[in-house]
Amino acid sequence: MPDEERPGGESTLTVVIALVINLAIAVMKLVAGLVSGSAAMLSEAAHSIADTFTELFLLTALRRSDRPADRRHPFGYGKERYFWSLLAAVSIFASGALFAFYEGFRTVFGAPSEQESPLLAYIVLALAFVLESVSWTQAIRQTRREAAAENRSIQEYLSRSDDTTAKTVLYEDSAALVGLVIAFLGVLLHQITGSNLPDGIASLLIGLLLAFVAYLLGRTNATLLIGRQADPVLVFAVRDRLAEAPEVEAVVDLLTMTTGTDSVLLCARLDFDDALGAADLERACVRIDGELRAEFHELNEIFLEPVPRTDPDVRAKVLARYGRELHPGGGTGP
């Protein structure tokens, strides 16, 4: 089957493109930074080096998270994608932002220095912008396609997406393009004024930009590692489908957790019709399980637990979590 139809296929393509481009750009920026002595160029070199390490972490995430479930990990390895993506965010901060801050402060408060070969810096920045645009175009193309498939805007998709690899590439490529503009302005103003100050400030701004991207990605992956609820659209749809089952009197509690990209664990506590016998209850659970899996392909593990809606302990847990009951007439959703 084509790569884009395989699980993680397009994400892998997006990451590989970004890896090759960032490695080439890192070498060019490093040479230009060493020759010109520009702090902004050296910061951009560190930026691209950090991005290169990020892509390596993301490729590891894609490879290891696709392993099937086994005895030690019965729910699979999907969350490993978030662990490696979190390390990618740390890499962006540690390798890129901290070095950019160091170069910025050194340049602003250090001894004045004359910039060498600014033309080389301009050429490298222009080439880097073109190459980064190629990677960014692939990332935004994948994001738009996946957002359209879910009938969402790009902003809504990014806020709810559980595919952190594509999101990481898009964020870091967007930051790279902005960083290149900042570096260009730093080199240009240094050349015009002869002062180190614009170059140092540009380096500090690049550091702030990288720190902000690292924070966004770190927060997203930390939330998914801890155990984030599934997409509310899915949760509401599952709740309504369970409530429509003829054997179900009420949906008492509904727990979901994202266990990987397009992978959700569901635990539903249901108040079944008291007239059902044990065999009827078993058949109802099997049928409901099958119907849910057929309609909602993200559900890879489903647990259905019969409970009375009047049970005080269960009711207290639901009220503590959602502030209200979940059965029809209880409100708008969990």
From TrEMBL:
It is found in: Membrane. It comes from the Bacteria. GO terms for cellular component: membrane. Pfam families: Cation_efflux. The chain crosses the membrane at residues 12-33, 82-102, 117-136, 169-189, 201-218. One of its GO terms (biological process) is zinc ion transport. It is a multi-pass membrane protein. One of its GO terms (molecular function) is monoatomic cation transmembrane transporter activity. Its main location: membrane. Keywords: Membrane, Transmembrane, Transmembrane helix, Transport. This is Cation diffusion facilitator family transporter. Residues 15-225 form the Cation efflux protein transmembrane domain.
